[in-house]
Structures are given as C-alpha cells and as structure tokens.
Amino acid sequence: MTLTGRKRGSSQTKAAEYLMTGLVILLLVCAAVTFLAPQFGWRVDAVMSGSMEPVIATGSILINRPVPVNEIFVGDIITFSIPAREGFITHRVIAIERINDPVFKTKGDANKVEDPFSVPTENVVGKVVAHIPYLGYMFYFLKTPLGFILTLVLPGLLIIGLELRDVWSANRDASDEE
Asked: CB–CB of 51/91 below 8 Å?
C-alpha cells in the first residue's frame, strides 16, 4: 500500500492509463492521416461551415481522393477551389454541363440556392470518400502551431509524469517495507 492508502494499479489508475493510451492513439491516427494522405494524392480537410449539414456536420474531417472527371456524377460530393476565394469548398454536384470540358453546378445541402458559379474540372480537388464527425476540430487544432507543439509535448509530459509516479510509488513501497 502507498501512503495515500490506494493500492498500486487501482481502477482509477488503470482508467487514466487507458484514457491516455486512447488519446495518444487518436492523436497518432490524426497525425498519420494528416501527413500520409497527401503522399498518395488524397486530401484531408476539416469542415468549418454548416453548408453540408446534416450529411456532413460542422467540425467533421473529410477525406478526398482524386478521381477522373468521368467518375464524378450528379449527387457526388466534391471538394474544389474557386479563384475568387481562398481555401476549398465542399458541395454536392447538382448538375453537369458538357460543352467542351464538363463543368459542375454545385450546392451545399443546407443552402437554399445553388452556387452562383460553375466549377471547371481543373478546380476539382477530389471526391469525398469519407467523413468523420467532430474529428475535424482536433484536425484543425493540430494544424496550428500550438496544436502541433501540444501533440508532441503533452503526451510526452503525461508519460514522464506516470513514470515518475511509478518510481515514487516503488520507492515509498520499498521504504514502507523496511
């Protein structure tokens, strides 16, 4: 027994260790998806607007893969850029106009009207193949300098703290036995 009266390996300690392990695994998965997906031409983005709700919630993480233009159909959700705006937009294809090269008419599911522009094929980044609700908030945070630092420092400090606690507990247990 330790001086606090708790046995080493109590259910509270185990729960904390499981929680920390889960958090570290979640952070590693987020980091892997964030940094490895672009190596294969895929794009990972966080959704920070509600234009695609309820299908894609604000704070979701999107995974886009590049596809040939002939694999985009009405009803698909695509991510694209427009020259007049910085960043990317993810909306549903509501029509495809085929003049020379196809252009896509898009609309956010939560929007009442279609987008006031057509999306040329060269502006299409990819087709949404997966979205994970609320994980985008963590993804967005990880891309900030503070988030990146905390991703490295926080798990390290937690591991060091747990190890120091175990060393102190072992020392206390050894001195109690004497």
From this structure: yes
Q: What does the pLDDT read at residue 2?
A: 43
What are the backbone angles phi and psi of residue 159, rounded to the nearest 5°?
Answer: -65, -45
Count of domains observed in the chain: 2
Same-domain pairing of 47 and 126: yes
Q: Which domain holds residue 154?
A: 143-170
- DSSP at 77: E
Residue 66 is predicted with a pLDDT of 94
Token pair for residue 91? 């909306």
Tell me the per-residue pLDDT of 112-164, one tens digit each, with 9 for 90 and over. 999 999 999 999 999 999 998 988 887 778 778 888 777 778 778 878 888 88
Residues shown for the chain: 178
CATH number for the domain harbouring residue 91? 2.10.109.10
Q: How confident is the model at residue 105 (pLDDT cuts 50, 70, 90)?
A: very high
Bridge-based pairing of strands 43-46 and 61-65 is antiparallel
Active site residues: 49
Same domain, residue pair 54 and 129 = yes
Parallel, antiparallel, or unpaired: how do β-strands 85-98 and 102-107 relate? antiparallel
- Residue in 71, 59, 118 with CA at minimum distance from that of residue 91: 118
Global confidence as pTM: 0.69
